[in-house]
Amino acid sequence: MYEHPAPASWRVALPHTAAAVPVARALVRTALAELEHTADSDTAELLTAELVANAVEHAAGEGPIELVVELMPGGCTVEVHDSDPAPPGDLTRPAAGHTDPWQEHGRGLLLIRTLSSSCGHRPTASGKAVWFRLSAVPRQRPPR
Questions:
Q1: In the chain, at which residue ranges do the beta strands (DSSP E only) sit?
Q2: pLDDT at residue 39, rounded to an integer
Q3: Crossing angle for the helix pair 20-34 and 41-58, nearest 10 degrees?
Q4: Contact, 69 vs 31, CB < 8 A?
Q5: Given strand 118-124, what is the order of strands in its sheet?
Q6: Are 20 and 65 in contact (CB under 8 A)?
Q7: Radius of gyration (Cα) for the chain, nearest Å?
Q8: Phi, psi of 131, deg, nearest 5
């Protein structure tokens, strides 16, 4: 019988530079692998990279970005905190009009909306947190 992993969480300060993106991806990958968590690691890494890259590119100020990863039996939640109180563009609702699939920018929030179980943002004492949740993926039974 499979037992669900116990809830666990990580909180890490990242630099307000592009170097934060691969560090955040590695942290999420390691957290999910070490606990043999059932959330999809590839999707978690991709969406984490999008949130961190958005914070680096769009958040005002030079303060650090904070990555919070919470693993629960039903899935995982990833939050990215920054010092800019302005909400992210069209995270929780589709953009007006048609998104050009060939444009270089603007698809990150669409990916987060489409691939996550849920997503959103909330104000914090020092700015905002943008988050997504992934539901656990059912484990495959080994062949008999």
A1: 8-14, 65-72, 75-82, 118-124, 127-135
A2: 80
A3: 150
A4: yes
A5: 8-14, 65-72, 75-82, 127-135, 118-124
A6: yes
A7: 16
A8: -140, 160
3-state SS of 90-130?
A: CCCCCCCCCCCCCCCCCCHHHHHHHHCCEEEEEEECCEEEE
Closest CA relative to residue 67, chosen from 113, 24, 34: 24
Burial class (CB in 10 A: 0-12, 13-18, 19+), 48: buried
Give the span between the Cα atoms of 80 and 34, in whole angstroms: 21
pTM comes to 0.82
pLDDT per residue of the chain (144 residues) written in tens, 0 to 9:
445 556 789 999 999 999 999 999 999 999 888 666 678 899 999 999 999 999 999 888 778 899 999 998 888 999 999 999 988 876 765 555 555 554 555 678 888 999 999 999 999 999 999 999 999 876 655 566
Per-residue model confidence (pLDDT) at position 132: 96
What phi and psi, each to the nearest 5 degrees, are found at residue 95? -65, 150
